[in-house]
Amino acid sequence: MQIDDALMERYFSLLAEIKSELVRTRIDSVHIIRSLIYYLLQKLNREYSQINHLAVEKNEQNDAFAFKQLIEIHIKEKQRISDYTELLHINRIALNKAVKNQFNVTATHLLKQRLLIEIKDYLIHSKLTVAEIAYQLNFSESNHLMRFFKKQTGLTTSDFLHEYQNGISS
């Protein structure tokens, strides 16, 4: 993709800002980084779509993208596929097919990975205990969160934090 120098300089500026947040992390850095990355990706998508004569609006109509947007909005209180199928007014099979076609993973996998990211975010950037994180994310008990985390990562929450603090895990 050919991008003019002025636009490329703007993208580099955004990347420099992301790097700055990563180097000098603050309590709200994760939100700033997330928004900058989202902004950068949307701008690149818009540029790519314009160059290749693709309709940017198409993504808004797609059930897979709508599912992904709903996950971002509701991840703290909704962790079941049925919650999202109700919101989207489609059945589980249609949702899974749309997600599989768009992202090459199942809807359940996408949901679990997003929930895992949320747990890691809490573990790294908050002072909350595992029990408090479990409460924040609507797990009925903290051991359910710990079991979910171990199944997804192969690590306990303590092992994950230890590895993260020593630069081993991400």
From TrEMBL:
HTH araC/xylS-type domain span: 65-163
Say if the entry is tagged with keyword DNA-binding: yes
The record ties this protein, via SUPFAM superfamilies, to: Homeodomain-like
Q: Which InterPro entries match?
A: Homeodomain-like_sf, HTH_AraC
Chloroplast as UniProt keyword: no
A Pfam match: HTH_18
Query: What keywords sit in the KW lines?
Result: DNA-binding, Transcription, Transcription regulation
The protein's superkingdom reads Bacteria
Q: Where are the transmembrane segments?
A: none
**Which PANTHER family does UniProt cross-reference here?**
ARAC-FAMILY TRANSCRIPTIONAL REGULATOR, TRANSCRIPTIONAL REGULATORY PROTEIN
* Protein name listed in UniProt: AraC family transcriptional regulator
